[in-house]
């Protein structure tokens, strides 16, 4: 049975971390909200299923994944599940938990990247909080982004099985998510990100290797890969790059 991924149809957002794992696994899945409404897709189906599919354990928000009778919300929890199912995390408990910990830290970085353009409220337009965004973005560029990327570099350097992967000797969803984080940062903060990557060569090499993986490379060239845009988590405002 194919997975059903429920996420917004016009942005990469948090759902893209799940899409990358599904694509790398070669898993059959339906990106529900991207299907035509006539075939049961669209945003109306997304919002309907958000409360209908699991009334006892409802997801808080997209993304959520349907796997048979399971309805799993939160990107990190979805990836924990897919890692087990498709060999995208170590089979041993310490390795699985370490991979999950890395994913949660990447999720923290994603939140902070988002908050550079919406530092006060998600219910306000960027233009309504631009002054605060300029201050928040400066701190993110100069302090927080380098701290997150330096940490990933240290994790790569410390991997007992070599720095070609974040965990163990093969690809995991942590590698895929690190790639997506860096791609998002490159889009939103091209100048600041390239400066940071000059100091994290292992991370830069990992991202290049992930992009060259056959299934990922095919996905990135396909119409399934939504382009970055100013409605998603990573948004390019030239004045925030500094």
Q: Which labels suit this protein?
A:
242 residues; Glutaredoxin; Glutathione S-transferase Yfyf (Class Pi), Chain A, domain 2; 2 domains; 4 strands
Task: Please give a structural write-up.
The chain has 242 residues and is of the alpha+beta class. It folds into 2 domains: 3-86, Glutaredoxin; 93-213, Glutathione S-transferase Yfyf (Class Pi), Chain A, domain 2, CATH 1.20.1050.10. Helix content is 56%, strand content 6%. A 4-stranded mixed β-sheet has the order 2-1-3-4, sandwiched between helices.
Write the layout of secondary structure elements.
Blueprint: E1 3-6, H1 15-25, E2 29-31, H2 42-52, E3 64-67, E4 70-73, H3 75-86, H4 93-115, H5 130-158, H6 173-188, H7 190-198, H8 201-212, H9 214-221, H10 238-241
Parallel strand pairs: 1-2
Antiparallel strand pairs: 1-3, 3-4
The portion of residues assigned to helices is 55-70%
What is the terminal-to-terminal distance?
Answer: 48 Å
Instruction: Count the beta strands.
Output: 4
Strand content: 5-15%
Which fold name is given in CATH as the topology of the largest domain? Answer: Glutathione S-transferase Yfyf (Class Pi), Chain A, domain 2
Specify the structural class: alpha+beta
| Shape-level CATH architecture of the largest domain | Up-down Bundle
Choose one word for the global shape: globular
Please compute the radius of gyration using only Cα atoms. Answer: 18 Å
Question: What is the average per-residue confidence, as pLDDT, rounded to a whole number?
Answer: 96
């Amino acid at each position: 049975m194919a997975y059903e991924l429920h996420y917004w149809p016009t942005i990469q957002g948090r759902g893209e971390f799940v899409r990358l794992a599904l694509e790398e696994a070669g898993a059959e899945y339906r990106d529900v909200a991207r299907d035509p409404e006539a075939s049961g897709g669209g945003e109306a189906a997304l919002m309907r299923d958000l409360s209908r599919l699991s009334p006892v354990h409802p997801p808080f928000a997209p993304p959520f994944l349907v796997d048979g009778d399971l309805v799993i919300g939160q990107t990190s929890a979805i990836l924990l599940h897919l890692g087990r199912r498709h060999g995208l995390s170590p089979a041993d408990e310490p390795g699985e938990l370490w991979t999950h910990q890395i994913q949660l830290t990447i999720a923290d970085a994603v939140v902070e990247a988002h908050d550079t353009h919406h530092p006060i409220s998600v219910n306000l337009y960027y233009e309504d909080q631009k002054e605060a965004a300029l201050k928040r973005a400066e701190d993110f560029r100069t302090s927080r982004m380098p701290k997150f990327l330096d940490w990933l570099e240290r994790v790569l350097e410390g991997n007992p099985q070599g720095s070609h992967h974040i965990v163990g000797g093969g690809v995991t969803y942590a590698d895929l998510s690190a790639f997506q984080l860096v791609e998002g940062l490159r889009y939103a903060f091209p100048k600041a990100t390239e400066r940071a990557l000059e100091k994290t060569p292992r991370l830069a090499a990992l991202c290049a290797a992930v992009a060259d993986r056959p299934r990922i490379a095919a996905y990135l060239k396909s119409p399934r890969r939504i382009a970055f845009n100013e409605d998603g988590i990573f948004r390019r405002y030239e004045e925030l790059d500094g």
